[in-house]
Please model this.
Amino acid sequence: MNYDCNKLADLLFPHITGTVAELEEKYPERSLPEGARVTRFAPSPTGYLHIGGLFGALVDVLTAKATKGVSYLRIEDTDKKREIDDGVSAIINGFASFGIDFDEGVTGFNEEKGAYGPYTQSQRAEIYQTVAKELVQKGLAYPCFCTAEELSVIREEQEKGDALIWGYFGKWAKCRDLSFEEIEENIKLGKPYVLRFRSDGQEDKRIFFDDIIRGKIEMPENIIDEVLLKSDGIPTYHFAHACDDHFMRTTHIIRGEEWISSVPKHIALFKACGFKVPKYAHTPQVMKIDEEDGTKRKLSKRKDPEAAVSYFVEQGFPKESLIEYLLTLLNSNFEDWRRANPKEDAFAFPFNLKKMSPSGCLFDLVKLNDVSKNVVSVMDADTVYNYIALWAKNYDEEFYNEFTKDPEFSRNMVNIDRESPKPRKDIAKWSEVKEYFAYMFDAYFTPDFDLPENISKEDAKAILEKYLEVYDEADEKDVWFSKIKDMCEPLGFTPNVKEFKKNPEAFKGHVGDISTVIRLAVTGRKNTPDLCSIMKLLGKDKVTARINEIIKSL
Model:
């Protein structure tokens, strides 16, 4: 450099009068307990919320909670070409659907909370340019007037030659040594330019950093003169994130493993700006088994509907279930903790970054269903009713009207075999409820009397006719079942299942067969929750009518 750096800074940023020192005063170190971690989730509003995004945000929130720290949501919207309408709303609604609650940051369109904002990058231009101006003053940044065509020629030369890496550095950094007069002339001529970082990295040097999840990592030092500000004054991701993470006082940058290759340039930027380098933790990708070839692959927006968080909302998975399942992927000791703390909120789990596996997490819908059945089974009836009603209102209006027509009936229905020491584990998602309980609603009930192989039509008719003689809707379960057992011997069945298994030729069947015939007549199903409770809810008239209808058909 053969020019006055302050003079160049004033030429490039005449409108910037503030200083980095003033920004340091405006955004002071946070007053937090020792060991508290400040984390951030920083998505771009360029599409729907990916399951990997929910995965990452959960890690951020849990890390902050476990250390009595702060998590915040920052929107990185500097790439306006890829931004979509309502992209921010899609992100926020996705998090809200699954109970992800940040302590600070963007909360809605033009809404935010916290003292370290704005939390949207497009509103922070003056901050970036203030830092950029100081880098120019220090001789650590310079304007580059290379056109897209000139950069393409440089790339072609590097591809054909023996360069170990490609980029703007060394002999290819053609604007690095322009004089002040040349720069001033180019600006007067209206030539567009970007602001580049003047790297002092060397090809033969390496850096080391400790990744909390992966341990010590060694990489080549950054030698690229990265773009800091684009020609419109908007920062690149690399520069913006360094400024934001510093002034928002982020202590731990937790992000996907695809960002590991960028660490050298990010550390170089933090150091050049005079900022403390945060701790890094690079999380594994969310993977699945490819159905075509059985190999592991990253969840694909194009191929996999479950890649979008909205899929789980539309399917009606409870928010608790998805969070519970993701926690089994995040820390191997979560399931042990859950067994010891069956009623604790999942967010109370003492999450530890060091217990995350560095290898890809395998997302398994079958396992999610199993986890969800467990989660739903321990919910009380009011919670289940409210969840079903809310889901149906948004995704199945006809069922919503049917389900909420008689709230007491529906609450009692979902409470069958619930709130007991061993609740049934049949429902994984709210979209299954309509089919699962179809026999409880006249609008959905479909008679089906496909008898077990060992029961003849004549015996079935005899069973049903006898049952109508003893049926009393006031009977509690014990009395009801004793009546079923009393029916057995006169009809050629045994009340003892073990006795039937020991000597099957001596009987037409056992007590379970008799209850199955009654269950089929009343519900059209061979497997349901407690039949006595079902009949109590349906009422005598409906039960009798259904049984008589089957008797007629026989």
Observations:
- The mean pLDDT is 93.
